[in-house]
């Protein structure tokens, strides 16, 4: 199977992102996701509504929203509205709440609340009614909609939940072989409990992407980006996340220093601070290898193929930048990397 690639972005101006996607769609990506963090970025559903008529093939949706800041009827109605604009191309990415909730003073949702929310949204879209937290809710105008729900998962319990109830999953535990194989095992365990298999689930692995034809340049960008993943990695603890014992305390310390108020648009001074701290703690190289594809085109091709050998086949690039920078990064990856992976051939020579 040839790999699929999508990317998720901070929502810039609706018209600007729509113009970007009109150009980027031609590069061969499969889907686009828009982050939901209202204290930091623009409204994702408004941006998705602008993207829909500007594209013809790309799948699009939130990557990801949460069960804390939006009632399930609000989310289902928004998804159905964008589905009117892009029939059959819309999906719903839902997670337990990261910066979109934390920067509003809210705690991460429990997995029980997340499960109830997913089931309620699915019932609203498919049947026009559902029960949510003891109340019957309805969505009368939308009719029957088959909009896939993709669950964000950053730990073993959320992976098992995704295996049990989700149409798809975006896994945020890394793209190293051990992270991929361990994540797939947890996902399979959850699926088996519901009489399903991993083959029934659309599985995406998310990480940061950096590519540059100049040796060493992309790696330097990747070093600071990998520290941002520590923020999500330490949420709920580090146990069960395939982390070497001698790395746990250092990764936890790094993640706890992350400034939530600049997530998605980290100033260069902050980037340098995170890199310096990761190096002092002795985890910089480990995090780079686990959470980032970075290097020359030949180097990142090799990294992607290593991940594919471990069982991954769909990759999400987290593009934490404003326009026009995120278009530059998405376009560079599309031009320099995607053509190397469209042919089912051995790793190209440098």
Description:
By secondary structure, the protein is of the alpha/beta class. It has a single domain, classed as Luciferase-like domain (TIM Barrel). It has 14 helices and eleven strands. The protein has helices at residues 14-24, 44-54, 72-85, 99-102, 111-127, 156-165, 177-193, 217-233, 248-256, 268-281, 284-291, 297-309, 325-336, 338-342; strands at residues 4-9, 31-34, 59-65, 90-94, 129-132, 135-138, 149-153, 168-171, 202-211, 292-295, 314-319. Helix 2 links the parallel strand 2 (31-34) and strand 3 (59-65). It is globular and about 55 Å long. Mean pLDDT is 94; it is low at 345-350.
What topology does this entry show?
Blueprint: E1 4-9, H1 14-24, E2 31-34, H2 44-54, E3 59-65, H3 72-85, E4 90-94, H4 99-102, H5 111-127, E5 129-132, E6 135-138, E7 149-153, H6 156-165, E8 168-171, H7 177-193, E9 202-211, H8 217-233, H9 248-256, H10 268-281, H11 284-291, E10 292-295, H12 297-309, E11 314-319, H13 325-336, H14 338-342
Parallel strand pairs: 1-2, 1-11, 2-3, 3-4, 4-7, 7-8, 8-9, 9-10, 9-11
Antiparallel strand pairs: 5-6
Helix pairs in contact: 1-2, 2-3, 3-5, 5-6, 6-7, 8-9, 8-10, 8-11
Keywords:
globular, 8-stranded parallel beta barrel, 350 residues, TIM Barrel, two-stranded antiparallel ribbon, alpha/beta, 14 helices, disordered C terminus
